[in-house]
Write a structure and sequence with these properties.
The chain has seven helices and three strands. By secondary structure, the chain is mainly alpha-helical. Helix 5 crosses helix 6. It is elongated, with a radius of gyration of 33 Å.
């Protein structure tokens, strides 16, 4: 990387062999001085380009993949504890099951649920929302989605979730979901 930086620096410095003050002080560069300066800069650029080419060829000679045993020679490979791996897998399965349940709830309200249902749910879960705590309820208002029919489908999902009378964990607040600018 340093070779490439030196090459770029030499290219930028090409016009700086003589400064403006040289002209104002009555010294004008001769053609020979310019030629000498250009040769020096050209040599620097050529040396830097040669160094870059050598480094690129060294990089291409490296193998694309290295077995773990060779990468950490003499050291034991790092492995996840079995319990941690199982917990990670369980969390992934639970998240997938929740996503599947939400897709099933949205299916009657969204014609393209078979093709785009999971994408719609993921988009709704990642969208911005306003959270407003109240005395008896916690109101979560999602931002409208990219198109009206998607926002209506998510609003229908919110109505279904509101009917479950879910409480926010650790509190007595009832969760209320809505989509902004939705008629529901």
């Amino acid at each position: 990387m340093a070779a490439a930086t030196r090459c770029r620096r030499a290219c930028r410095c090409g016009g700086e062999a003589w400064t403006e003050s040289d002209y104002f002080e009555g010294r004008t560069p001769t053609r020979r001085a310019f030629t000498a300066a250009e040769k020096k800069i050209f040599r620097e650029m050529q040396d830097s380009a040669d160094r870059v080419a050598a480094l690129v060829s060294r990089q291409k000679a490296l193998p694309a993949r290295i077995p773990l045993a060779e990468a950490r020679a003499g050291k034991e490979p790092v492995r996840l504890f079995t319990e941690r791996k199982h917990l990670t897998n369980v969390l992934k399965l639970v998240a997938y099951q929740i996503e599947s349940d939400l897709v099933n709830q949205i299916r009657p309200h969204y014609a393209r649920a078979e093709d785009e249902g999971r994408t719609l749910i993921q988009t709704a879960l990642q969208s911005a929302a306003a959270i407003e705590p109240g005395d008896r309820e916690l109101r979560v208002t999602l931002s409208p989605l990219s198109s009206a029919h998607r926002s209506h489908a998510v609003a229908a999902l919110c109505d279904g979730l509101n009917q479950t009378d879910t409480r926010f964990p650790g509190t007595n607040l009832r969760m209320r979901f809505a989509v902004a600018d939705s008629p529901n």
